[in-house]
Amino acid sequence: MDLGIRGRRAAVAAAGGGLGYACAEALVAEGASVVICDVSEDRAAAAAERLGGGARWLVADLTDPEAAGRFVEEAAAALGGLDILLVNGPGPPPGTVLETPAEAYQAALDRSLLSVVRMCLAAVPRMRAGGWGRIVAITSLGVRQPYPNLALSNTARAGATGFLRTLAREIAADGITVNSVQPGLHATDRVQSVYGDGELLTETLATIPAGRLGVPEELGALVAFLCSAHAGYVTGVAVPVDGGAYQALL
């Protein structure tokens, strides 16, 4: 299926590897013009080279909300406008509620809520100017079903989901959709750092009906569809991508 986004201009955050890279790869494959970012210049440059398709790169520290907003502004300037934004960023460190001091929450909110806000606010005026836009954010299944030992992420990303759904209602009539994907456990460095490859991971996989970690490219394909011309009537949704781990009716 031709997704109808050839030539569309896309900013893809935190795409030096993992899920962000997989999303950028899917967009490049559909002919979109892509600018990615990473906190590491070497990772950003190497990822853009692997992507091909004229992909460009910037360096941005997405734990800083102002830097996150600047990434979108600089990407739009490089592309001559902006049609697609993939919101992504590094998650907060692990820890239980009782182990995590209250002072740690501000940094978590900066990176997983306020950076999301800044990226979207930088993107929307440019999309409105073109009368078309797609915003897709990578959040977490923890928004629906809190993960043990990820108190900061569960909290901050839930706030981001509330923001995204509110924004979706406000700009739907402008031809701009706002959606999120909620990954469960995928084969990324982040999952490796939290779950390792021993007993904890084995026990966790036993709770996933698919019986395996997700492949980043699987999530990238869904994101590309949500960014497509065909998904213009899909907005305000949050889609679990989790191998069946989330089992509630709503």
TrEMBL record:
Keyword Cell wall biogenesis/degradation: no
Database matches in SUPFAM superfamilies: NAD(P)-binding Rossmann-fold domains (SSF51735)
UniProt entry keywords in alphabetical sequence: Oxidoreductase
Recorded superkingdom: Bacteria
EC number: 1.1.1.100
GO molecular function: 3-oxoacyl-[acyl-carrier-protein] reductase (NADPH) activity
Keyword Membrane: no
Enzyme class at the top of the EC tree: oxidoreductase
Record-linked PANTHER family: 3-OXOACYL-(ACYL-CARRIER-PROTEIN) REDUCTASE (PTHR42879), NADPH-DEPENDENT REDUCTASE BACG (PTHR42879:SF6)
Annotated family: Belongs to the short-chain dehydrogenases/reductases (SDR) family.
Annotated protein name in UniProt: 3-oxoacyl-[acyl-carrier protein] reductase
Organism: Pseudonocardia parietis
